[in-house]
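Ticket opened by: R.M.
Priority: normal
Category: complex prediction / small molecule

The reporter submitted a protein together with 5-O-phosphono-beta-D-ribofuranosylamine and asked that the result be attached to this ticket for the collaborator who will pick it up next week. Submitted input follows.
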Amino acid sequence: MSRDFTIIVFISGRGSNLGSLIRNQANYRIIEIISDQAEAPGLALGAEFDIPTKVFPATGFSTSKARYAAMKEHCASRSPSLICLAGFMRIIPADFIEAFNGRLVNIHPSLLPLHPGLNTHERALAAGDSEHGCTVHFVDTGVDTGARISQAGCAVETSDTPDSLAGKVLALEHKLYPWTVNQIAAGNIALSGGKVIYSDDARFSAASLGFKLF
Ligand code: GRF
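Result attached by the on-call engineer:
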């Protein structure tokens, strides 16, 4: 695994995407796991894989502003090549996002721009979508509005429920997120002038795996 392209992963809960990012490190190295929740089950992966963890709990700071200022300072001191949000369930303030502009990515469980925000599987079913899936995108100051990088989709069957869709989409997330981060780390995907650009290698690899690029 590359020692050069370093990543901090932000989580709030279970951490299954974190687990997939850890297990698929090829071109990048995860240097730290950060959580806003001391009880996040995903933090246990830090001990398992010998990756440092750090928690920024709401109770530790007098204001949300102070909390994010501390997180920003901490992350800047680590100089990560990329920060990956993986089920980080908080809106990150604009000044943090601007400090890491082009170095902050997220995975969202819908085919954006469809269904930003929460309860995406329920909403895909309620809308009668024939396809559903997940998106990796750069983070901007909106909610799930940043430049899309990659998507993986699946058919919605008449028998699907929110739970069955969640299971199908999560399995796609576990493939799409590490693939995308490995491609970014290899220099095959980059943000340039607000637009995502791809190498031929990235396009070929995505096509062979059934991932959509933009
Ligand atoms: C995933 O569905 C991700 O797309 C969303 O939050 C969920 C996190 O799951 N942002 P996990 O903690 O990675 O298991």
